[in-house]
Amino acid sequence: MKRVRDRVTELRELIKEYLRRAKLMQLATSEKDQPWVCSVWFAADDDLNLYWLSSITRRHSDEVMKNDRVAGAIVLPQTPEDPPVGIQFQGTAGLLTSKEDIEKAFSVYAGRIFPVEKIREFMASEEKPHRFYRIRPVKYVLFDTVNYPENSRRELVL
Description:
- Helices cover 30% and strands 39% of the residues.
- It is of the alpha+beta class.
- It has a single domain, classed as Electron Transport, Fmn-binding Protein, Chain A (Pnp Oxidase, Chain A, Roll).
- The chain has a six-stranded antiparallel beta barrel with strand order 1-2-3-6-5-4, surrounded by four helices.
- A hairpin with an 8-residue loop joins strand 6 and strand 7.
- The radius of gyration is 16 Å and the shape is globular.
């Protein structure tokens, strides 16, 4: 049992490190069986939740409010010569409305993506007000040919 726990801990730490290094994710949403993919700047907390800031007028923001089930992919810049490494995930997403949740998003997002002043400017915009959203992943799939060359696909179910 300890060996399985050690492997899960190792996988979780690899995913956390990868999320620390990456800043851009592809987010998949859908409405009425019509999928949509966009790119958003993100930050992750220690529990592997993902946060992003987006205009409430964007298609993905609207679709998350109608269907909270999302998926996505995160890949660091690579060349064809680099060994493939990337993360996919699935989970539920939503607009953050409580003061506590918004403060948490600020704490992981500010300075990593945009400075606090820029975030406040985005959020105060009358034309395109921005809000924080959070994804609570239920599963991560790490595809990592560097650390797992023999069996590169690893799943972490949360």
